[in-house]
Amino acid sequence: MVGAQGYxxxxxGTRELxxxxxxxxxxxxxxxLTLRPVxxxxxxxxxxxxxxxxxxxxxxxxxxxxLEWKVLFFRDQHLTGAEHIALANLWGDIEANDFxxxxxxxxxxxxxxxxxxxGMENIWHSDTSFxxxxxxxxxLRAIEVPEIGGETMWADMAAAxxxxxxxxxxxxxxxxxxxxxxxxxxxxxxxxxxxxMERIHPRISHPVxxxxxxxxxxxxxxxxxxxxxxxxLPGDEADALLDYLLFQARVPEYQVRFRWEPGSVAIWDNxxxxxxxxxxxxxxxxxxxxxxxxxxxPF
Length: 299
Known about the structure:
three-stranded antiparallel β-sheet; 6 helices
């Protein structure tokens, strides 16, 4: 299938799906936890861990598992808000969210949906890519879940980059793209509110192909709600190429899907993944709480 400007809409299967960049980073076994892979390159269920009581050695193994599998899933973790924040603090400082309502503490973003509020997160995205220091990771816990529906999906953007045609990878390796909250959050804001928020979060350019600061892995770093334009290209050409790159998150072979239960937790590396909250549960109630860790400047 061919898209705009002759780009193939899907280019999967010509390269092996990989979890690492080949540096043999993950040869060590795990002594303090059990991993059960859910996807081929992304997603693993972690067993044998109480997230409310993490010592330094267990945290090191969790972080290595996160680098390897990009998103980790846990069951039966009934954390308090304070434990949720303390867990995130093991990875770094908490990112203040300027757009979500808070939970019991300002560090917690509360996402509550019911018959009066429809889920709006059903779009592939990487959190806060409009910041100069986008999120490093997020920890999401389920408080109330619908009987049916309300699952979340994640996409491996390193696998997406690996499977681009050679000529496309060569074309985008040195490109940057402009990111802004205005493209999404701005749709519900007044002009005055947008101007005030842009003083905090002005438009920012990031590499289209980002390098993971810990593994050296290259991955695709554009997303639909926050990436506005590819820099330095003519309008029609930029639009067609961006549309093609955005499409890559939708390829099922790069994805994993998680069914929530009360007390379930997901920890994901926001740098190298995108996620999508499936909005198929209206008018049922779904309540989630998230704590996010500050990241660094993409390169």
